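Please describe our next protein:
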Amino acid sequence: MADAKNEADRGQDPKAVKRRRLSPEDRERMIVDGAIHYFAEHGFDGETRALANSIGVSQALIFHYFPTKEALIDRVYQDVFLSRWKDQWVEIIGDRSRSLRSRLKEFYRDYYATGDRPEWIRITLYSALRDIDINSRYHARVREHIIKRIALELREELGIRNVEGPSTDNEEQMVYCLHSSVIYQLIRKHIYRMDAPDDMTPIIDANVDLFMNSIPLVLQGFVGGQPAP
């Protein structure tokens, strides 16, 4: 049987032979990895034929595993974004045994390191430009579990009195200013392809320090409460 199989393999494209020998799980993984790379480099406008050519498979094989392009995009979302989400981030932000300044530094160092991949930031921007829900779904999660939480932790940290209820738009926008300062470093590196320091810790820490040093008076004006004496 082995000889017959080897004989059948002769004269065929070695890549095709290798693909035929892949398990279904490995074939699916190959398609997803290829799609991540393709979308990160070319965006979401291309046809599945171009995507298939870039991976080295047929369109039919892609549709065997993912019946629609939207299903493949959803799988890319799961792999690139949800699989890298860390529940411990929420725990770090909410740990009131430490100063918020310290918590924010730890969180943003890890958040930057987790997102420091070209496919992460490039797919984020491409999906935003094409109004694909990868962007809206992920940023809804960021807003709910990071932005709003930091805004409320600021009230607690600064002892803002007489203010209750969910975070306001103004509070959240202030937090987004800090958040975007970290994201911009990833944009410089992976979109503009500018050199970045090997160790971003000093820059991230400086951004947090600037934010925490300036926020008390600004926050007091926005929410109308009074800081603790």
User: Anything to note?
Assistant: Residues 133-158 form the longest helix (26 residues).
